[in-house]
Amino acid sequence: MSGMTDAVAYLLDVAAETGLTAHDLDELVCDAKSAEAAAVNNDGMHAQLTYLAAGGDAGVIAAQLRNLAREAGR
Fold first, then answer.
1. Burial of 40 (0-12, 13-18, 19+ CB in 10 A)
2. Burial of 51 (0-12, 13-18, 19+ CB in 10 A)
3. pLDDT band at 41, cuts 50/70/90?
4. For residue 2, is pLDDT > 90?
5. Residue 21 carries which DSSP code?
6. All structural domains of the chain with their residue ranges
7. How many angstroms separate the CA atoms of 56 and 35, rounded?
């Protein structure tokens, strides 16, 4: 087993032992993603575009960038 698999198995055990549901974890996940987004944003445009490109289609993202610029009057 990998370290990540071991960690997930352990956390699943803790969640089961405490009676938590997926819904109970929603805020923790949101907090984690918010912290990730803040770190990416603080690292500047290159980091932001790298992050966006890793999760989506470059053509779609380019259209979103153009729309954003247009809305900002640029």
1. middle
2. middle
3. very high
4. no
5. -
6. 23-74
7. 20
